[in-house]
Known about the structure:
By secondary structure, this protein is of the alpha/beta class. The chain contains 9 helices and 8 strands. Strands 1-2-3-4-5-6-7-8 form an 8-stranded parallel beta barrel, surrounded by 6 helices. The longest helix has 21 residues, at about 65-85.
Amino acid sequence: xxxxxxxxAEMLWQDKPIEWRCAKLTEMxxxxxxxxxxxxxxxxxxxxxxxxxxxxxxxEGRLCDDAGADMLLASARxxxxxxxxxxxARLNLHGTGLGEGGRPxxxxxxxxxKWVKALDTLNRxxxxxxxxxxxxxxxxxxxxxxxxxxxxxxxEETLALVSAIDRPQLRLNLDLYHAQIGEGNLIDLCEAxxxxxxxxxxxxxxxxxxxxxxxxxxxxxxxxxxxMGYSGPVGMEAFASGDPVAALDAFRAxxxxx
Length: 258
């Protein structure tokens, strides 16, 4: 059972133009993950020949208050149109907008009232996604290292939201790097999330580099995912510890089914 492998273009070959990185990943047989589309020339991205697995699905907004939800819906609609132009398979969301260094634009704690509002906002996202024929994902993040103050960051929270919505327009972007830092128990977590996973993202811990540079047994995770019947996309959202080609080869080797 083969996975569809992708890699985040922004994190590799950072001295090269983004369209060069996309073309290089495509040449190596990978789909391409992107961050924020306004940073790039869309015509050049189209010309790269890449198949885009995932892209940040909004530019501003929040899940759990009226003003933030309205900003999120407007931003997500604009981004969805760009995603359709590029053929992006999944558009990614977080509990709130992220600023410099991945810190939340507005740090919040989750309250019962905010959970209710977040569910309402995500249902509105699904209505819009159904209208435009796109799919959004909700990504878990880690609080201790990278994203302190983001609401609904833990995988148990993103799973609770997506499973409660339970609509095909909203899936999980299950990031195992973030989950290892915040929660651990990755194989059981994958099994619990399996019915709602849209994409799995990986990087090793510590350091956020390619598989094999840290503590996570990604080959074991890959075997477990196959035994569960998962054959969807796996994206390396990681920096290269050295040569990017070698990093991508290590990623492929960890998830190779041969």
